[in-house]
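Typical record is below.
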Amino acid sequence: QVQLVESGGGLVQAGGSLRLSCAASGRTFGFYAMGWFRQAPGKEREFVGAISWSGAIIEYEDSVKGRFTISRDNARNTMSLQMNNLKPEDTAVYYCAADPPGGRLRTVAYNYWGQGTQVTVSS
């Protein structure tokens, strides 16, 4: 069992930066791939990026490539999402997730989810 808690959301102007963190509880954190997703009002939850358990594989959604960076620290049970050059279209509730079935990083069917943190980018 893994419990996830996101933090670091807030209001930022376009072009600014935010760093989201995901704190996990549970001894098996280091065995799980982790992902970040977001959901804007009226839209479906979408993949942002994900990282394998070792950190060797990292994938990003095309619109955030070159602007967002995912990292994890298995010793501290944390994962981060550094978001630079933010755009108004990045506004959404951001969720961290753990343990995608079959190791499919881009699936929305992760087994564990946090409660989400709001990111608002003003123009």
About this structure: The CA atoms of residues 81 and 89 lie 17 Å apart. The two ends are 40 Å apart (CA to CA).
